[in-house]
Amino acid sequence: MPTMFEKIWNRHRVLEREDGQTLLYVDRHLLHDGTAPAFEMLRARGAKLRAPDRAFATPDHYMPTDTRRVAEIANPELREMVASLTRNAAQEGFTLFGLDDARQGIVHVVGPEQGISQPGMLIVCGDSHTSTHGALGALAFGIGMTEVAHVLATQCLWQRKPRAMRITLEGRLGPGVTAKDMILHIIARIGTAGATGHVIEYAGPAVRALSMEARLTLCNMSIEAGARAGMVAPDETTFAYLQGRPYAPADWDRAVEGWRALRSDDDAVFDAEVTLDAAEIAPTVTWGTSPQEAIAVDGLVPDPAAEPDAARRAELTAMLDYMALHPGQALEGLAVDRVFIGSCTNGRLEDLRAAAAIAQGRRVADGLRAWVVPGSAPVKRAAEEEGLHRIFLDAGFEWREAGCSMCLGTNGEIGAPGERIAATSNRNFRGRQGPGVRTHLMSPAMAAAAAVTGRITDIRTL
Amino acid sequence: MERFRPVRSIAVPFARDNIDTDQILPARFLHLPRDADHGACLFRDLRGAPDFPLDRPQWQGARIALGGRNFACGSSRENAVWAMHGHGFRAVIAPSFGDIFAQNGLKNGLLPVRLPEATVAAMIARAEAEPSAELTVDLQAQQVIDADGVAHPFEIDPFARRCLLEGIDELAFTLSHEEEIAAFERRIGRENS
Ligand code: SF4
Predict the structure, then answer these.
(1) Which of A80, A153, A408 sits opposite B171 (nearest CB)?
(2) B169 inside domain
(3) Is B1 inside a domain boundary?
(4) Rounded distance, CA A159 to CA A157, Å?
């Protein structure tokens, strides 16, 4: 009667400590260009990478997306971040998909794309959005830098067993509504701490109906609900996605047979259960500075005066102030200055297709800058083979190289103070896209609609 | 890691819920090397705001921070802990924490202390009304002693507690179990072949 999470957990137990923490064996350790301090810690201990064949790296956070040449990075500190990953790969002998490699991209796009992330695996990475890989039926979570160094040295990690939560989505999504709207809606419902201490399993017919890429979007933002990890039980959709990928298991049939057994048993008991109706979800947009402040695009931002709790009232007022919104204002029609389509949440091929479908035959609004940043070099190539880049370029979008870009802006790509940005990324915290920048999170189609109208627009009425 | 000793100090109240790690350490400082002055970058974009307490004279030198619910949610950046620690903080008291931040804190000598919401709210109110009121965080005894001498016990993972108190790190402990790890690897190697 175990849940899928428990089955995977149990399989990776090396030993238990007297205080109940478990040493777990890590199947895949993903690394990016922000990992340099962990290698310093490793060397300070005189330790070596224990299992180089289980570590895979790609630069994504620090590389500007207008060039592929490290030498062209103007800022020497950023250049050093990218260069140090290359040096560490050479020294420690792990696989690197560098900037000159056709497989480079955002680490959470690359893992599934190459078939490195597989059902039943325990996957960690020094990045909170590692929850993405759970879409394949893996247990995947983000860790801190000291933990990264611990995994490098031991291939293991100490963890206290989280609790299990199931979020069931009944019914089906309406037209124009995507996995991004689904996860924003979930976070708005349960809050950014709603799943703290839990691993979420997403279930129900509306989740089963999602494509693999949409499931990756869904699991990606589990961390924004406070969860350690999010997962979806592997099924035919998962197997069809993985088959033929470069790192897919050689003994395919046997692997699939094992993966089928991973799903939670019918009588599995979860510590928490949430059930929602997918049909009630509208295209959803954040208005505030926390991912939980999300409402239907045709809704009104809250009025703090209607809030009984004083602390919450002050919080709402501060957010409205930062976002330059009035109490009770409509989101629809709000003018935006920039549009960012990309990130590990929404930088995959289907995301770009959805955005291109809106952009086709239209023009980016006057005075607005709109970027499309593919999640990986293979996504970029595939999009170009379909001619999506032509659609974007003809419409006046900029077509960039793969990377994290404006999701976090550590590569220098940030907005200007006061700018309002429609973004497909995952965090709308104050200053996330640059000091004073106002971020509205939404789906790729909604972001493309904002680009062509210059305003937050309900794609159902476009 | 240095040994964690009892901390007796005034406390800075960060009264908001859901303070995220992008506020604690903005992303543009993430590339700084481990030994850089992360403390100088702490809450960089909020400093100077009239209602932000960190640089107010009455709370200078504080080694304890008080936070709202879900303190330090968001990104896994351990740099957020380095910034708090670098600025001088040794303990954060809040009703709840972002998971990864709490783990990172334990590994870097920044103790996350969970106390009931009402208790933390009272401590915040007291710190605001009387900034010179001191708290003591005693890890050995697993309690916070407030300005009136009332002890508030807290829970902490016993192993993390021992590591903090003795200044030992987890890695050394794990490496002492190398044989079990190797045995596990032999076993999965067999299963996979
Ligand atoms: S795209 Fe954004 S969230 Fe994803 S790994 Fe990069 S910075 Fe992190």
Answers:
(1) A153
(2) yes
(3) no
(4) 6
Q: Domains (ranges, CATH) in chain A?
A: 4-272 (3.30.499.10), 284-461 (3.30.499.10)
Question: What predicted TM-score, i.e. pTM, was given to this entire model?
Answer: 0.95
Tokens of A133: 């890989």
Shortest CA distance to B74 belongs to which of B26, B40, B36, B41? B26
Q: Which residue of A has its CA nearest to B170?
A: A150
Which residue range is the domain that position B186 belongs to?
7-191
d(CA A55, CA A417): 39
d(C-alpha B9, C-alpha B62), whole Å: 6
pLDDT tens, chain B, 193 aa long: 789 999 999 999 999 999 999 999 999 999 888 889 999 999 999 998 888 999 999 999 999 999 999 999 988 899 999 999 999 999 999 999 998 899 999 999 999 999 999 999 999 999 999 999 999 999 999 999 999 999 999 999 998 999 999 988 889 899 999 999 999 999 998 765 4
The answer to whether ipTM exceeds 0.95 is no
Counts for chain A of helices (H) and strands (E), in that order: 16, 19
| Residues in B 128-167 with any Cβ partner in A closer than 8 A | 157-159
Residues with CB under 6 A from ligand 1: A 60-61, 106, 108, 127, 129, 343-344, 404, 407-408, 425-426
Joined together, the tokens standing for residue A221 give 């933002």
Q: Angle formed by the axes of helices A349-359 and A377-386, to 10°?
A: 40
Give how far B75 is from chain A: nearest CA, Å.
Answer: 6
Interface A-B: count of C-beta contacts within 8 A: 150
Query: Based on the structure, what is the number of domains in chain B?
Result: 1
CA A53 to chain centre: 25
Contacts of A318 in chain B (CB under 8 A): 16
- B131: domain CATH number is 3.20.19.10
Q: For tokens 């190797």, what's the residue? A: B182
